[in-house]
Hints:
Blueprint: E1 5-14, E2 19-21, H1 22-28, H2 33-40, E3 44-46, H3 55-70, E4 79-83, H4 95-101, E5 108-112, H5 118-131, E6 138-145, H6 155-158, E7 163-173, E8 178-186, E9 194-196, H7 207-211, E10 217-219, H8 221-242, E11 252-255, H9 260-270, H10 281-284, H11 291-298, E12 308-315, E13 319-326
Helix pairs in contact: 3-4, 8-9
Bound molecules: coenzyme A (COA).
Coenzyme A (COA) binds at residues 31, 35-36, 39-40, 116, 155-156, 159, 194, 219, 221-222, 224-225, 228, 258-259, 262, 286, 314-315.
Amino acid sequence: MAKTLAAIKGVGAYVPTNVLTNADLEKIVDTTDEWITTRTGIKQRHILNEKGKATSDLGVEAVKILLEQTGLKPDDIDLLICGTVTADMVFPDTANTILDKLGTNKGFGFDINAACSGFLFALNVGAKFIETNTYKNVVVVGADMMSSIVDYTDRTTCVIFGDGAGAVLLQADTDGYGILDSELRGDGSGRQFLHMKAGGSLKPASCETVEAKEHFVYQEGKSVFKAAVNGMITSINEVLNRNNLSPNDIRWVVPHQANMRIINSVADGMKIPIDQVMVNIQNYGNTTSGTLPLCLFDYRDQLKKGDLIVLTAFGGGFTWGSTLIKWAY
Length: 329
Ligand code: COA
């Protein structure tokens, strides 16, 4: 019997309408459009600034577009996995909130916290439920409202991040299309370079933690930069070598959008022309779990059935990895 693969059969994405440009940031912190553009490639990011709205609302809008595209109804979703570091609340999870806001309680959901690798890890977990013929329709969401954990007085982080979400539908395929292989990695010793200091069990929220601004992203950019380039290149190579493929066989590299210089370094390191690398960082900044599905959505008209693509990500944890996919539609 032909092997069952988990194939992406649809993509949806959503960013809030409110835009924060580099010119806007020049008025908030000591920075310039020139610095941000040359050091990161980012020109603007979208910020969710509606009171009472949260990460789940970004996810809901992305899933609605996905359902429209695929002709499914909320009740058809067997399982929804949400990659996020900005859950609506510490608990419960955001995935079940998304399902509830879509008006269904027929399936179930859970979150995966792997920082900027959140979508990639969630995609691979979701794939297992398809490959084992456990469920028919698995929706994988990557959603983050980074503006809720970014300090807009810290110029080293506030220029980088934005809010956004994307979602894909996974269904079974027995014709060889879908997720072919993955290399997923973690190294917890990297947590010192990228984390949020307070609000967890290690340091619960208190007046002191708020005063010390410990509920925001803490990042040592240079260490993260080097590890990100290295992690993405080595994991792509691992997957390609294991499948007897060379970079020439790959139609698209879909990299996490953290910094244009990181993306360029990965392309150079892989000897893959930059026009075969999906890039939309200029429009959204780093939306953490949202970047990969946002790329797939923006490039959806250029993806063709049979294309070999590699998704690659790196994030806090450290977490990183690459997934090889034969595009299904
Ligand atoms: N505007 C102007 N100057 C800025 C600035 C800003 N927004 N942010 C930092 N600077 C300054 C610094 O203060 C420093 O000044 P100094 O030399 O007087 O001390 C100088 O620019 C260089 O800072 P540095 O941190 O060395 O810059 P960088 O080239 O490493 O770029 C990042 C900083 C954060 C953009 C970069 O390190 C990066 O992208 N790292 C990876 C981030 C990432 O991927 N995170 C997501 C998880 S995957």
